[in-house]
Amino acid sequence: MFSFRSLEVFYWTAHLRSFSRAADKLHTTQPTISQRIAAMEGLIGAALFDRSAKPIALTAVGRILFRHSELLLRHVEAMERDLELSDRFEGTVRLGVSETIVQTWLATFLEQAARHFPRLDIDMTVDVTPSMLNALRSGEIDMALMLGPTIVEGFSCLKLRDYALKFYAIPDLVSTDVFSVNSMPMTPIITYPRNTYPYTYLREIIFREIGRIPRIFTNSSISTIEKMALDGLGVALVAEGALSDQGLAKMKVLQSDIELQPLSFYAYFQNGVRGEVFEQLAGIALDVASATEP
């Protein structure tokens, strides 16, 4: 009654609740998606989607077809696994990555992923965690390597590793090896964006301890944070291992009397069809992250 491709189109349109996002996912056009769905509705004689809802929603008939299409696609995925065809998976995974991972072990991860899935293309975006969370929820990306933990409906997560937060500065800016909470209001701090843990915690703890709000410069680019610190504009607070070797050679690590929780990174990946491919990629990320020195 329906071709495999039509069921795949229907599944991803229902899963992503968007004709345009399904088109992006399947590397086709929105009119093509709409035509296939319309043809399926013509064969059934009933609407599969309530197009007046924002975002689109499945009708009662659509929900029945969704259950069966998901089962069928999962059976195909299981068949490929049993026949040891997983390494022949062809397609594109849209991956979001935190810059800390870019600076540490991303290259090794991509190399290992290419070895395991030689026909897999990775469409990568480097962004901050809040933006990647929105992209996961809206279906713009399939998988993310980012800060956590947090709950994302329809996604599983796997903890990769922790990175300690460290203060770094050029010797001319801070003469001692200790960056105390009392001295923080006098020296600008350069760290991650305002909606991240390092910024909010620093602001809160310093104000609580001495009643003054510190001067904090924020940036989503670690390379920019490093450049600002090298120029003597402030003390950098970033994850251990995130700075370049050249930057580390010109700066020193400062001890502090405030206790900072480490940054925890997780792999978030889609459940459902092709979930096993994403899970294997998350496993590769875990192996690489665990073997990488900070």
From TrEMBL:
Q: Name one GO molecular function term.
A: transcription cis-regulatory region binding
Name the Pfam families on file.
HTH_1, LysR_substrate
Q: Which InterPro entries match?
A: LysR_HTH_N (IPR000847), LysR_subst-bd (IPR005119), WH-like_DNA-bd_sf (IPR036388), WH_DNA-bd_sf (IPR036390)
User: What domain of life does the native source organism fall in?
Assistant: Bacteria
Q: Does the keyword Ligase apply?
A: no
Known role: Transcriptional regulator of the ttuABCDE tartrate utilization operon.
Protein's recorded name: HTH-type transcriptional regulator TtuA
- Species of origin reads Agrobacterium tumefaciens
Q: What is the lineage of its organism?
A: Bacteria, Pseudomonadati, Pseudomonadota, Alphaproteobacteria, Hyphomicrobiales
